[in-house]
Design a protein that fits this description.
- The protein is about 50% helix and about 5% strand.
- The chain has a five-stranded mixed beta sheet, with helices on both faces. A two-stranded antiparallel ribbon has the order 1-2. A two-stranded parallel sheet has the order 3-4.
- Helix 6 runs parallel beside helix 9 and helix 16 runs antiparallel to helix 19.
Length: about 750
Amino acid sequence: MKHMNSEVKEERTSNKNRIDLFLVPIVLIAAFLNLFKIWTDEYANAYYTAAVKSMLQSFHNFFYASFDPGGYVTIDKPPVVFWIQTISAKIFGFHGWSVILPQALAGIGSVLLLYVLVKRTFGVWAGRFAALAMALTPIVPAVSRTNNIDSMLVFTLLVATWMLFRAVRTAKFGWMSAAFAMIGVAFNMKMLQAYMVLPAFYVFYVVATKITWKKKIAFLTTATALMLAVSVSWAVVVDSTSADKRPYMGSSQTNSVLELAFGYNGINRLTGNTSVTGSGHKQPAQTEQQTASSETKQTSNSSADSSQSSNQRKSSSSQKMQAPGGGNQNGMFNTGNPGPFRLFQKGLSDQISWLLPFVIFSIVGLFAGVKFKGPYTTKQKESLFWLAWLLPVAVFFSIAGFFHQYYLIMLAPPIAAFAGAGAVALWSMYKQHNGWKSWLLPGGILTTAALQVYIMSPYVSSIGVAPIAGVGALGVILALVLAVRKQRKNSLTNYLGAAAMVVLLAMPAYWAMTPIIYGGNSMLPSAGPDSSSGMGGPPSTATNSKQSGFNGMQPPGSSSGNSSSNGGQMPGGSSNNGQMQLPSGSSNSGQMQMPGGSSNNSQMPNSFSSKSSSSKRKSGGMNAEVNQKLLNYLTKNNTGEKYLFATTDSTSAAPYIIKTGKPVMAMGGFSGSDPILTVSKLKAMIKKGEVKYFYLSGMGKGGQSDVITWIKDNSKEIPSSKWQSTSSSAQQGPSGNGTLYEITLK
């Protein structure tokens, strides 16, 4: 770290046309964390993977991002990322890894982009530290190893940032318009989440651009109009198309993309509530994944489990439903409770906050002596940009009613940028004995080490005492030694500074590897020793560390013991004892489980164990296998119907779409609550010979109770012996404890 500031100009010149050799291992680390063993995730997030399977079959499905090959309903997000995934699957073949690959490459690309963005202004060492911090931020590889959208979203926003910085340097409107247009593209990835960076773009352009105010206003107005035009371009086309000529817009209540953008994927994320058509009440907002639409249940899946399940029912029936991964104090889906210190709470801090104290000290150092009226240096202007990205996003996650842990990847770029720029700035102040500023480096090291000890403390049973004590002791020692040696200039001090940075990055590096070590969850990605559960919470807060989270889901369609309702339920379920329960079944253990299946206590979620990574695993929060006996029955008895069968929700439909590529109708869309189907529409479809088999569980009654009632009253029940698997090795199908019906109208 010696003479880093003085080396900046020299290294810029000498390395201008050469590869930075220090960057190579950083990129290799990022590649390892993002790519290693993604080939073991056979189906990834099955909800989105099913859509890719459907989109491969026709341009109509491709354009609208249809969930099913029949073009009945879309997924709950815009299509851009899924267009990219579909192209990848077209090139490399349809596999779990081929739909994950674009996101993994985006994660690596974000590391490189951050290096480029930070290096130019703050120096090569700042760029290296920033890139390394980005690569080792645990939630970054956790998300990038899945086919969820957020990794690609962040990469796109960093591309827009690069364009904006270039626009400021060159004062050219072309780059400015391109930057805002790129945000419009990002909007078509995850809608309003892309706009979270707009404060940074506006503030930076106003402060940094050396043109007249008249031109600034004109350029910003025009660029914003272009951004909005790009943002709504797909939505306008879809909403202008006749509803009978396109799929229903999934997860919207009015079959509208714009309503989806500003409701389900917009304001409802802040308020945490969304209305469910037909249910007559408000409830927590549903998520991109079926897990977010409800809390869970557990049923026994074999006679061998019946005794244990009975005991678990007795224990759980008297308890209130706990948030995933732990007690209610950890908030819904382990995202903590709203408040100014939410990012330091369990479940969030270990995903993103490892370096936050150091970042705070860095911000103080970088803005020390800045006057409100300026003039501002380039470093101060770009620091203002990263601050204007960091603060609004941090505020949102501190007060939002509903989000998932992996959304926190939006905070990774500004945190990493400040970590890199701050490391160099604080080191320079320390070496120059710059008054009170020289204390910022040891202070940042000490407080950051203390926070990391706090973050790791709930995981003592998983990781042991040694790493926690080691980080704490080394952090304290190095901070104190640096404080004592402030007046000395020798190589030992340089090594101590480098050692301190290594210590602060050691545990984030380990946490970033946990999806590889313990297994990941493609529906609710998170990092940590229980990353495979998708809950990202400390095991010490769970009722049973081996059975917490979405453990051991029973594959759909299996033969399982009868179970009674124990809890308050999302649409389609009943309420008891104030417990939350999955719509498609009942709770008898207090365990968390994905919709449409019950628990197998011996297995980690998604049908794989943390130590069986050598074999293919079915991830995505739902078992992506199918009930072969059911599939054989439906195929044999299909007499030309368009849909193999209809079911209430996407959880039951996705595995069959992935397996066969045939249309399966999710009557209520993603969660089973979309008001897509009416009795009259269904009658018309049956008369046309489009569908005759219906698999019904408890899902989706909130939005389609009339349809479900009509199906039951006008159909014949197919004996379970004809289609339901009973062996433990073949317990696959749409949903446990469901019923298969047949309707033929003349």
